[in-house]
């Protein structure tokens, strides 16, 4: 029953396909010897024409059923993919355009005609037939470029792999310790759902200290955290900026399963950056009640010029999260506490 259904659908699809693509493939007509023909009409405009050249051929045709006719076509099947090319058009330049393809499994059959897809599933109790035009399907480009923005919060991990406690002068306050990244990225498709992402960007780090009475200043040999008891502190922070290059390998399970953006996406890879600047900022007011004043000091002298680490991303739908961890210390050896920056945020 499925073969008869597919044959009818196939003939209808071919009729539609050639009707829509008729302008692309002009037909050249020539005078030919008149031959006998058998015309099978179906639907409103569907038609199959079988031409026979002799009475013997016509007698043989009368003895054949529809399955024998299909088998007599002697179509070649691709053993690796299971695809069967039924109709192809050879252009004058020698290129070939495959118009009709058939893929048949145990309980599933798929017919592709000029961008249209007919799918028959007999694996369940009831036979399901699905028809797709393919016009709305977006092609996944092999290479693309894009721009994104990172927005996250920063913190440190000390030599023991823990976040600094509140009694440490450099313990970080989450709200206000922002990380902003501007990234120009490119993605190279390696296989279906598997990509190589790489790019370059600018990262701006702010570490807002939880204890606003401490100020980071440049000492003679290292950075010092001094307690300001002579003023009323409002804000104390340390900032740095980097030019960063990164690369990641990404797995998009949604595209692997033809679900588009509805699947899970994971990516991970290394990055390396070069420091562009660094300073400390302290906002305070005199004890006598003066207005707010700002004290900025260049502390980049004791910051590591080169940063490197691991970046990971997790995407669900249109939302993507990221985290970065610097494998190197924020400060140079012996110039400050052993602190490794870590960031959590979202990608826009």
TrEMBL record:
Domain of life (superkingdom): Bacteria
Record's keyword terms, sorted: Signal
Signal sequence range: 1-19
UniProt protein name: Outer membrane protein with beta-barrel domain
The species this protein was found in: Algoriphagus boseongensis
């Amino acid at each position: 029953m499925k073969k008869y259904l597919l044959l009818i659908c196939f003939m209808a699809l071919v009729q539609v396909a050639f009707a829509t693509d008729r302008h692309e493939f002009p037909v050249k007509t020539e005078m030919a010897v008149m031959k006998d023909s058998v015309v099978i009409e179906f639907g409103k405009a569907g038609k199959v024409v079988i031409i026979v050249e002799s009475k013997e051929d016509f007698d043989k045709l009368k003895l054949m059923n529809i399955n024998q006719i299909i088998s007599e076509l002697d179509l070649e099947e691709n053993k690796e993919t299971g695809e069967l090319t039924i109709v192809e058009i050879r252009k004058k330049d020698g290129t070939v355009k495959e118009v009709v393809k058939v893929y048949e499994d145990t309980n599933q059959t798929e017919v592709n005609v000029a961008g249209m897809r007919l799918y028959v599933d007999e694996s369940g109790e009831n036979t399901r037939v699905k028809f797709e035009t393919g016009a709305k399907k977006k092609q996944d480009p092999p290479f693309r470029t894009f721009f994104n923005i990172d927005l996250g919060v920063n913190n440190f991990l000390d030599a023991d792999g823990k976040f600094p406690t509140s009694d440490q002068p450099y313990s970080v306050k989450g709200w206000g310790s922002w990380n902003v990244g501007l990234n120009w990225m490119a993605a190279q498709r390696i296989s279906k759902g598997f990509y190589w992402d790489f790019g370059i960007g600018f990262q701006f780090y702010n570490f807002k200290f939880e204890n606003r009475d401490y100020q980071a200043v440049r000492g003679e040999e290292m950075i010092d955290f001094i307690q300001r008891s002579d003023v009323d502190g409002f804000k104390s922070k340390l900032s740095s900026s980097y030019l960063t290059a990164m690369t990641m390998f990404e797995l998009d399970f949604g595209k692997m399963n033809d679900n588009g953006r509805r699947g899970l996406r994971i990516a991970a890879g290394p990055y390396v950056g070069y420091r562009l600047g660094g300073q400390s900022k302290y906002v305070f007011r005199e004890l006598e009640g003066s207005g707010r004043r700002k004290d900025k000091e260049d502390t980049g002298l004791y910051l590591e010029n080169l940063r490197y680490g691991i970046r990971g991303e997790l995407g669900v739908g249109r939302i993507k999260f990221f985290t970065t961890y610097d494998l190197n210390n924020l400060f140079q050896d012996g110039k400050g506490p052993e602190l490794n920056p870590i960031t959590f945020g979202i990608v826009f």
